[in-house]
Design a protein that fits this description.
about 150 residues; mainly beta; OB fold (Dihydrolipoamide Acetyltransferase, E2P); 4-stranded antiparallel β-sheet; 10 strands; elongated
């Protein structure tokens, strides 16, 4: 499936306010779905993910370092971003968490394959830049990690 077709479908969904688009070729069928609310989301999700409400602890203020002080973790593929292993599990990381090289940061699902995205350096998570259940593009910024010196 060509990335241009997926991008065009996502753009068309947004422009026309569609909640679902099906794309089928000889080998693959892809269904893009998004929830339409009063404030229409600009990013369609590939699949509806059941979300259970959970108490979210108050976030501690994070002092953001200068641009040269962090490493950007970008998506190596197009897919759906998941911050946890399952809908009822805690996120792999949150802003302020310390990570070691090789720690799992998230999962990007592409064509029913769960791809773990791991930290490439030791450091502290500054920001999670993608929304759980959202479609992410190749090269899209997922995390900012302040490197340990």
């Amino acid at each position: 499936m060509d990335k241009k077709i997926l991008k065009a479908a996502a753009d068309t969904m947004r422009e026309l306010g569609l909640s679902e688009v099906r794309i089928k070729d000889t080998e693959t069928e892809i269904v893009l779905k998004r929830e339409i609310t009063a404030a229409v989301s600009s990013t369609p999700a590939v699949a509806a993910v059941p979300v259970t409400p959970a108490a979210v602890p108050a976030a501690e203020p994070v002092i953001e370092p200068t641009v040269s002080d962090w490493t950007e973790v970008k998506s190596p593929l197009i897919g759906v971003f998941y911050e946890a292993a399952s809908p009822d599990a805690a996120p792999f990381v949150r802003p302020g968490d310390t990570v070691k090289k090789g720690d799992v940061l998230c999962i990007v699902e592409a064509m029913k394959m769960m791809n773990e995205i791991c930290a490439e350096t030791d450091g502290t998570v500054i920001d999670v830049c993608a929304e759980n259940g959202a479609l992410v593009e190749y090269g899209q910024l997922l995390f900012k990690i302040a490197e340990d010196n």
